[in-house]
Specification:
The complex is a heterodimer of chains A (550) and B (279). Chain A has 550 residues and is α/β, with parallel strands linked by helices. Helices cover 38% and strands 24% of the residues of chain A. Chain B is mainly α and 279 residues long. Classes of the chains: A alpha/beta (550), B mainly alpha (279).
Chain lengths: 550, 279
C-alpha cells in the first residue's frame, strides 16, 4: 500500500441550508483512500454518506456548501475548484457509478456513442469503435460489438450498470466512487456486479470509495470500513475488525439488524386447519410492441398454487419480474386472474370468481400492507381517518372507531396523538406502522405484505419485522410475505415459495428450503446473498455468545 | 391553510389581482345601493361626456353608464362563476370516470371529448344560445358546454396517475366502493390542479359572455358589459366613454382572475412553481 493516499478527505464540514433538521450534513469527516483498496462508507439514509461523495465529485445540491476542510486528490486540493477544472477531474481522475442504472444513461443515444462521446469530451482525439468495444468487453458484457449499437432500453438493469462501470473506467481514473451501485439490482445481479468491481479493482489497482447501507455487501467487498451516523464517522477500521469486533454501539446495532439466514421460527404445527388454498393461478400480460409485430406476451404468474394453514407465514421469494407481487395482487383481488382457484375457509366457491357483493364481505378478512409507505397513505387525510375508514365503512360507530384507532396505534407502538396528524409528518418506518395499523383495523385473518420493509433502513427494517412478528403471534394472523430478500424470508417465514418467471420453482418449510435447497435457482439465490460467509459465522458467534451468557 | 396563504401572498401579482377582484365583487354587490333603480332607466340628456354627476357619462338614450357598469358586474360575475362551476362538474365527472375505469369506457369518453373539442367552440356557443333563446341560463349552459373538455382531459390524466397509487389499492382492499374511492380518496388529491384550471376558466367564460352579448345574444333584460360595448360601437367616434368604461371593466376583471389563478397555482402546486423565483 502506498504511503500517500490517492484520495484524502480532511476534516470536511458540509453545511445544510438554514431550517434543515441539523446544521451540518457532514460534520468533521476525515477519510483516506489508498490506491488498490476498497473503502466502504456505510450508513443509513440521511447519514451524510452520499453528501460526502457529492463533495468529492463537486456535485453538491443547490443550497448546500462545504463549510470547511480539504479534499486532496493525488495531493491536490479539489474542494471548491471551478466548474471547468472539476469537469476534467470528473470522469477523468474520478469515475462515478450511481444507484439508478435505469436513468443514468441517455435513452435516445446508442450505448457505444455515449461512451465515445465521453472519451471525446475528455480529449481523447479519436475514440475508435475498438476502444469502446474493449471497454464493454472488460466489464464482462456479452457480444460487446452488437451491444455498442443498442439503445439503453434494450439492456437489463445489470447490463446498464456494467455500461456505467465501463464509462467510469474509460479514462483509467485513480478513484472510483460507487454510490449504492447495486441497491437497485436483483440479488443475483448484485453478486455479479460486486464480483466485477472486485476484479477490476485488483486488476487496475485503483481506489474505490464504495457507499452502501448493507453490511452484507460490506462483508463481500470491503478492505476498510467507515461507519457514518448523522454526519459523523463513528467508527472506522479494517473490514475484519469492524465486522467481527465492532467497537461503537451504533455499528453493533447496525450489524445486529442485518437479518440472519437461519430460519428464526420453529415450524408451525401442520395440524392447524387450512385457511386458504390456491391452485392453478394464472395471469398473462400482453403488450403491443409495434404495428406489425406480434403482441409481447408475458406469463406473470404461471400455474401457481399453495396451501396456507392458520397462523402460518408463507414467504414468496423472487427477483424483480418473477411475478411475486402480481400473485399477491391476484390473491387480494386487486387484479383479475385469468385462471385458477382460491378457496378461503368459510367462503363458498372460488374467491377469484366471487361476485362483487360477496367479495366486499370477504375483503375484510384479507388485508394488505404495501411496499412504499410514502405512496400507500393518502396524503390528504389524517392518520386517524385513514385507520378508521375501513371499520367505519363496515358499520361501527364513530366513537367505537376512535377507540379502535387508539388501540391500533398502541399496538403498532405509535403515540395516540398520531391520529390527528397527516402522513407527511412521519418517517418511513412510522408510516409503515400506520399502514400496518390500517390493515389490522378490520381484524383480518390473512395479511398480505408486499415487500413491507424493502423501502426502509436496516435498523428500522428490523423493528418493523419484529413488530409484525409480535402482532402475528398475538392475533394469530396468517401471512403471505412477499420479498426479494432471502434473509428477510428466513427471518419471518414458516414456509418459503421461490418464484422465477411466474413459476413457483420450489416450496417447502423455511428450514428445508434454506438449508437444503433442491432447485438450482434457489441455490443460486442463496449463494448470491452478499456477505453470506460472514453472516453464517456471525450467527455462529452470536449463538456461542448466547450460550456462554446462559 | 396558513402555509397556503404564505405561498399565495408571495406572488405580488396575485395579491394585486385579489384586491381588484374584491373591488369588482364589491361593485357587483353594492350596485343596487349605489345606483338604485333600473339601470335601463333614462337619467339625463343622452351622450353626456363624463362629469361630476355622471362620472362615466350617459349613453345614446341618456342612461347612466356607471350604473350599467356596476349592474353589469353582477351579470358578468354570475355567468363567469356559474358556467365555470358547471363546466368543472361535467369535466371532472367525465374525466374521473374515464381515468378511473380505463379501458373501453375511457376510450368512449375520450373520443366524445375530442369530438366536442373539434367543433369551433364560439360558433357552438352562438348556436346553442340561438336555439335556446337568449337568456342568462342559456348563456351559462352554452359556455359550460363548450368549455368542459379541457377539464375532463386534466381530470382524466390526474385520475389515471393517482389510480395507480398504493393508497387507492389500500382503499379497495378495505372494500370501499368505486364512487367512494373516486370522491374521497382520489378527488382531493387531484383538486389542486383542477381548481387552478377552473380559476383561469372564469376569465375565459367572462370573455365568451361579453362576446355573446356584444353580438346581441345576451339576456335582453339584463345589462352586461359585452352588450354595452356592442351598443356603443356605432358611436365610438363621438362617445368614447360608452365603450371604454365597460371595456376597461372586462380587461381588469379578466386580468385580475388570471393573476389570482397564477397565485393559486403557486400556492397549490408548489412543486410546479416556475423556476427562477426566490424560494
Amino acid at each position: 500500500m502506498s504511503v500517500v493516499p490517492v484520495l484524502a478527505i480532511e476534516r470536511l464540514v458540509i453545511d445544510l441550508p438554514a431550517g434543515a433538521e441539523r446544521r451540518h450534513a457532514v460534520d468533521d469527516v476525515s477519510l483516506s483512500l489508498h490506491s488498490g483498496e476498497i473503502l466502504c462508507l456505510v450508513g443509513e439514509s440521511g447519514s451524510g454518506k452520499s453528501m460526502t461523495a457529492h463533495a468529492v465529485t463537486g456535485l453538491l445540491p443547490d443550497g448546500v456548501k462545504a463549510g470547511a476542510g480539504r479534499i486532496l486528490l493525488e495531493g491536490r486540493d479539489i474542494l471548491g475548484l471551478g466548474g471547468h477544472e472539476m469537469q476534467a477531474i470528473r470522469g477523468g481522475r474520478i469515475g462515478m457509478v450511481f444507484q439508478e442504472p435505469m436513468t443514468a444513461l441517455n435513452p435516445v443515444m446508442r450505448v457505444g456513442d455515449q461512451i465515445a462521446e465521453m472519451l471525446r469530451f475528455h480529449g481523447v482525439a479519436d475514440p475508435t469503435r475498438r476502444r469502446v468495444v474493449e471497454l464493454l468487453a472488460a466489464v464482462g458484457l456479452p457480444e460487446p460489438e452488437t451491444l455498442a449499437r443498442l439503445y439503453p432500453f434494450r439492456l437489463s438493469g445489470g447490463q446498464r450498470q456494467r455500461v456505467m462501470i465501463a464509462m467510469a473506467l474509460a479514462l483509467d481514473p485513480a478513484v472510483l466512487i460507487a454510490d449504492e451501485p447495486t441497491t437497485a439490482l436483483d440479488v443475483t445481479t448484485q453478486a455479479q456486479i460486486l464480483d466485477l468491481l472486485g476484479q477490476i479493482q485488483s486488476r487496475r489497482g485503483m481506489g474505490i470509495l464504495f457507499i452502501t447501507h448493507d453490511f452484507g455487501v460490506v462483508a463481500e467487498i470491503a478492505h476498510r470500513v467507515a461507519v457514518m451516523q448523522a454526519g459523523r464517522i463513528v467508527e472506522s477500521g479494517t473490514a475484519t475488525d469492524v465486522l467481527t469486533r465492532p467497537a461503537h454501539a451504533y455499528t453493533r446495532q447496525l450489524i445486529a439488524a442485518v437479518p440472519r439466514l437461519q430460519p428464526a421460527r420453529p415450524r408451525a404445527p401442520s395440524s392447524r386447519p387450512v385457511l386458504l388454498e390456491a391452485r392453478g393461478i394464472e395471469k398473462t400480460f400482453s403488450a403491443p410492441t409495434g404495428l406489425f409485430r406480434p403482441r409481447r406476451i408475458v406469463k406473470a404468474v404461471d400455474n401457481a398454487g399453495f396451501v396456507l394453514r392458520r397462523g402460518e407465514t408463507l414467504a414468496v421469494v423472487g427477483e424483480s419480474g418473477s411475478g411475486k407481487s402480481t400473485l399477491a395482487r391476484l390473491v387480494m383481488r386487486l387484479m383479475t386472474a385469468d385462471a385458477g382457484e382460491i378457496k378461503l375457509s368459510g367462503v363458498e366457491g372460488n374467491l377469484l370468481a366471487l361476485p362483487r357483493r360477496r367479495l366486499r364481505r370477504a375483503r375484510r378478512r384479507l388485508q394488505m400492507v404495501f411496499q412504499d409507505p410514502y405512496a400507500s397513505l393518502n396524503p390528504r387525510r389524517k392518520v386517524g381517518d385513514i385507520i378508521a375508514q375501513g371499520p367505519l365503512y363496515h358499520g361501527i360507530t364513530p366513537r367505537e372507531a376512535r377507540r379502535r384507532v387508539d388501540e391500533l396505534l398502541e399496538l403498532v407502538r405509535l403515540d395516540a396523538s398520531a391520529a390527528d396528524r397527516y402522513p407527511h409528518e412521519f418517517s418511513g418506518g412510522q408510516r409503515q406502522r400506520i399502514a400496518i395499523a390500517r390493515a389490522l383495523a378490520l381484524e383480518p385473518e390473512l395479511l398480505v405484505a408486499d415487500e413491507p420493509v424493502s423501502a426502509l433502513d436496516v435498523s428500522i427494517q428490523a423493528q418493523v419485522l419484529a413488530l409484525l412478528d409480535d402482532i402475528q403471534r398475538r392475533l394469530e394472523l396468517t401471512m403471505i410475505f412477499i420479498t426479494h430478500d432471502l434473509r428477510v424470508a428466513a427471518h419471518v417465514a414458516d414456509k418459503v415459495a421461490v418464484m422465477r418467471r411466474g413459476v413457483i420453482v420450489e416450496t417447502g418449510p423455511a428450514a428445508e428450503v434454506l438449508e437444503r435447497p433442491r432447485h438450482e435457482y434457489t441455490r443460486l439465490l442463496l449463494s448470491s446473498i452478499p456477505g453470506r460467509a460472514w453472516i453464517a459465522c456471525e450467527a455462529g458467534a452470536q449463538d456461542a455468545r448466547g450460550e456462554t451468557m446462559q | 391553510m396558513r402555509e397556503f396563504w404564505q405561498r399565495f401572498s408571495r406572488n405580488r401579482g396575485a395579491l394585486a389581482g385579489l384586491v381588484v377582484l374584491a373591488a369588482i365583487a364589491f361593485a357587483a354587490l353594492a350596485a343596487s345601493w349605489l345606483f338604485p333603480g333600473d339601470p335601463w332607466q333614462m337619467k339625463a340628456k343622452p351622450m353626456l361626456a363624463p362629469d361630476a354627476s355622471f362620472p362615466m357619462g350617459t349613453d345614446m338614450l341618456g342612461r347612466d353608464v356607471a350604473a350599467g357598469v356596476f349592474h353589469g358586474a353582477r351579470v358578468t360575475l354570475t355567468i363567469g362563476l356559474a358556467s365555470t362551476i358547471w363546466a368543472t362538474v361535467i369535466g371532472v365527472l367525465l374525466g374521473a370516470v374515464s381515468g378511473y375505469a380505463g379501458g373501453r369506457v375511457d376510450e368512449a369518453i375520450m373520443r366524445f371529448t375530442e369530438f366536442v373539442q373539434t367543433i369551433p367552440s364560439f360558433i357552438l356557443a352562438i348556436l346553442l344560445v340561438a336555439i335556446l333563446q337568449p337568456g342568462i341560463s342559456s348563456t351559462i349552459l352554452a359556455i359550460a358546454v363548450v368549455t368542459w373538455p379541457p377539464v375532463a382531459r386534466l381530470a382524466r390524466s390526474e385520475f389515471l396517475a393517482l389510480r395507480q397509487r398504493e393508497f387507492v389499492a389500500a382503499a379497495l382492499t378495505i372494500g370501499l366502493p368505486a364512487w367512494r374511492v373516486i370522491l374521497i380518496e382520489i378527488l382531493p388529491n387531484a383538486a389542486s390542479s383542477i381548481i387552478v384550471m377552473a380559476s383561469l376558466m372564469v376569465a375565459t367564460a367572462i370573455l365568451t359572455e361579453s362576446a355573446l352579448s356584444f353580438l346581441g345574444l345576451g339576456d335582453p333584460n339584463l345589462i352586461s358589459w359585452g352588450y354595452m360595448i356592442g351598443a356603443a360601437r356605432a358611436v365610438i367616434r363621438q362617445a368614447w366613454w360608452l365603450s371604454v368604461f365597460p371595456g376597461a371593466a372586462i380587461f381588469l376583471t379578466v386580468l385580475a382572475i388570471n393573476l389570482v389563478g397564477e397565485g393559486l397555482n403557486d400556492a397549490l402546486n408548489p412543486h410546479l412553481r416556475r423556476q427562477g423565483r426566490p424560494r
